[in-house]
């Protein structure tokens, strides 16, 4: 099993990779630039190349995550900025040798026409990917359903990829907390979830899993992550989570912690516990 966590780039991309190794991880996630801005980053190609070489040397997987303000259903005044920002993210991600960049599925932007959001998502994705020829992918992440967010079902995720002009440039990221919060997965329907993903062709394009517990019950539509082994703070049963991510169809998919690192357990400690408890 490939375990990792989100790490800071305050010491550069190579520094982030070294931090992951210090955490005893075999994968990591990072923000390619300021997580609170869509501004274009002039990044160090030398640092990115060093990160890529270090990851190859240490058999380390990496993935990026777009800034918080990124939306593939942006307002009209932010559409061009969003497209440029996503291309910038992909360029950085590719230079670092990463799998791709995780992007949250879009939100509902019209109360009268539910298709408006899907049309805009396709417009934005097609615009970005028509200009992108690198190896890194756009990785669409399932949503928790907060504030009208779409993308809580496999059907939505797969259909957007299928309808895009460049499906080969799109993969998926499954967030376990989001799946639980949205009601897509309740801990007891793992078999049904696996079967549905197989029938829709979802799993074959899954590239990374965000391994998170949930601070709220299933169906709550609240996106609050909890630590994997904190029974007092997480609603997902540890065994149910283990059974899901150890499903044979998910073998070899990097598992990235986005759990709290300041609530009594560090990411390094959590990774060590995962290895002890889940690797036979």
- CATH topology (fold) name: TIM Barrel
Low-confidence stretches: none
How does the helix and strand content classify structurally?
Answer: alpha/beta
- Count every beta strand, where a strand is a DSSP E run of 2 or more residues: 10
Number of helical stretches of at least 4 residues: 9
CATH architecture: Alpha-Beta Barrel
Architecture overview:
The protein has a single domain (3-278), classed as Divalent-metal-dependent TIM barrel enzymes (TIM Barrel, Alpha-Beta Barrel). Helices cover 38% and strands 15% of the residues. The protein contains nine helices and ten strands. It has an eight-stranded parallel β-barrel with strand order 1-2-3-4-5-6-7-10, surrounded by four helices. The chain has a two-stranded antiparallel ribbon with strand order 8-9. β2 (27-30), α2 and β3 (61-65) form a beta-alpha-beta unit. α1 (12-22) packs parallel to α2 (45-57) and α3 (79-95) crosses α4 (115-130). The longest helix has 17 residues, at 79-95. The protein is globular. The mean pLDDT is 95.
How is this fold's topology laid out?
Blueprint lengths: L2 E4 L5 H11 L4 E4 L14 H13 L3 E5 L13 H17 L4 E5 L10 H16 L6 E5 L12 H10 L6 E6 H7 L7 H11 L5 E6 L1 E2 L10 E2 L11 H8 L9 E3 L9 H12 L2
Parallel strand pairs: 1-2, 1-10, 2-3, 3-4, 4-5, 5-6, 6-7, 7-10
Antiparallel strand pairs: 8-9
Helix pairs in contact: 1-2, 3-4
Short description:
The protein is α/β, with parallel strands linked by helices and 280 residues long.
